[in-house]
Amino acid sequence: MRGETSPEEEQQLLAWFREVDSQEDILTFYRQRWHESATKEISEEVQLRMFNQIRDRINTDKTVLQKNDRKQNRRRLLRWGQYAAAVILCVVVGITSHLLYTRQSMAEVKEYMVEAEKGQRASVTLPDGTKVWLNSHTQIIYNSNYGVEDRVVDLRGEAYFEVKKDAKKPFIVDVASMQIKVLGTSFNVNAYPTESKVLTTLDEGSVKIRNAQSNSFDYIMKPGETAIYEKETGTCIIQKNKDYKNESVWMKDVLIFNDTPLEDVLKVLSRKYNVQFNIENEAIYSYTYTLRSEGESLQEILESMRHITPIKYEKTNRREIKISPR
User: Fold this and answer.
1) Count of CB atoms situated within 10 Å of the CB of 57
2) What burial class does residue 3 get, using C-beta atoms within 10 Å of its C-beta: 0-12 exposed, 13-18 middle, 19+ buried?
């Protein structure tokens, strides 16, 4: 705005305005300036008109950025300086928080996905400050209206949530045909599409779970409880879980199996290490395992399993392992 930027910096600035990841930084800036000038007022009609002008300019065709003529870049910067000045003016004279939080509802609703592929884990902080940790082979999906009226995410896989408290905007996890609704709490959800059950374990606070299709159940959970939802029947039971903290130890690269059938152990290892297991003899499916692994390699875990039961393993290629009786 003072005319001190180079043409390259101007292009970087314009590109930054369009980036999705920049929206929260811009919004935070607006909020701070609004609080600093809370005593000044401007009509909502004028605010909305100015906001629309800025938004339309930001959404101008991206190909404009790719022109190399320096004079045109300078003229565009001047025009952008006017719009940027209008942005700051709106902030200084007191854009209402309602306008800031509903800016996305006036634009096209977009869908965002965060994914942790097989063999990986990931974490993300949502626009409201809610933190989510994703286990291997997991996706969460939310749209650009997140936080306007409510906070809804779709989960496919396993994730741990630390939900930012907001009594006016409930946080909802959609999984299969079940909904988990919270205000502010910490909980783990295991909801892989290939599994027949959805497990919800509550660490702190309270959550409300219900069948979103048939309303066949509507329960409020307490810390230390696990809800087991059967996808096929649509039924759910809630039970005390003395080892409830174990449900989220995967966040610390820990695996715990407690009398777990071989088939279920291999499913977990397949997701965590991004490998495929081939079983030579189905009779070994009757084997169960009780063990704990902290940051161990796949080979170390398979060696432990080999000492517990009479099995052997053979790596047939980079991503496939054959398991057979010993």
Assistant:
1) 16
2) exposed
